[in-house]
Amino acid sequence: MLKSFSELLLEAGTDEAGRGCLAGPVTAAAVILPIEFENNIINDSKQLTEIKRNLLKPLIEAKASHFGVAHIYPEEIDKINILNASILGMHQALDMLNASIEQIIVDGNKFKPYKNVPFECIVKGDSKYLSIAAASILAKTYRDAYMEKIHEEYPMYNWKKNKGYPTMEHREAIKKYGITKYHRKSFRLLPEQLKLEF
After folding, report:
1. Cross-referenced PROSITE patterns, in alphabetical order (predicted)?
2. Ordered structural domains, the chain, with CATH
3. Torsion from C-alpha of 185, 187, 192, 198, nearest 10 degrees
């Protein structure tokens, strides 16, 4: 079972989803769980089925002391790059917590200081610590819901299924139909990037 990083501090776990996508936002979440919180199913969102993630989302929202979710959209990603956009998303999600955070634990190895709060970057943190795993589930489910919504506008890209990731089907659709306002123009959308008309 995953654990809490510290039982002495008010600790927020944060993670993001959608960094490697060609379209849609990068979505970050931050979660503070009560010290007594326990759950045997919560894990890194990538290790869970979509059904399990969708079942866990309302449970996390109900049981968390505080949580926040933020989308950073393609226009901003193209301006500041995906790493900075991911960190900006985590900062915005932390802003939503309305709590005096004493410690931040971050999935991965890159972060920027947030309001002088001590932070720890943890590689594969979403498979080690409950609050990061919970954040990873919220980030993924909120982002997936957003991609399913914009799928209705541009069904030819099948975002309902591929969620904006660079599948062969998604790249074939870009080749055939060009790009949309939801695509990240700074990303290598096709192997032969120069053939793309912006």
Report:
1. RNASE_H_2 (PS51975)
2. 11-150 (3.30.420.10)
3. 0
List, in sequence order, every residue forming a beta bridge with 15; answer none if it has no partner: 29
pTM: 0.93
Beta-carbon count within 10 A of 152 CB: 9
Residue 15 annotated as lining a ligand binding site: yes
Kindly provide the b/e burial profile for residues 23-56, where b requires at least 16 CB atoms within 10 angstroms of the residue's own CB.
bbbbbbbbbbbeeebebeebbbbeebeeeebeeb
Per-residue pLDDT of the chain (198 residues; tens, 9 = 90+): 676 776 768 999 999 999 999 999 999 999 999 988 989 899 878 889 999 999 999 999 999 999 999 999 999 999 999 999 999 999 999 999 988 999 999 999 999 999 999 999 999 999 999 999 999 999 999 999 999 999 999 999 999 999 999 999 999 999 999 999 999 999 988 876 545 444
Residue 126 assigned as binding residue: no
Q: Could you tell me if 16 and 139 are in contact, meaning their C-beta atoms sit under 8 angstroms apart?
A: yes
Crossing angle of helices 130-151/50-63, nearest 10°?
120
**Residue 117 DSSP label:** B
Helix, strand, coil content of the chain in percent (nearest 5): 40, 20, 40
Q: Kind of pairing, strands 26-32 and 11-17?
A: antiparallel
Tokens in use for 161? 């299924």
| Residue 105, beta-bridge partner list | 13, 120
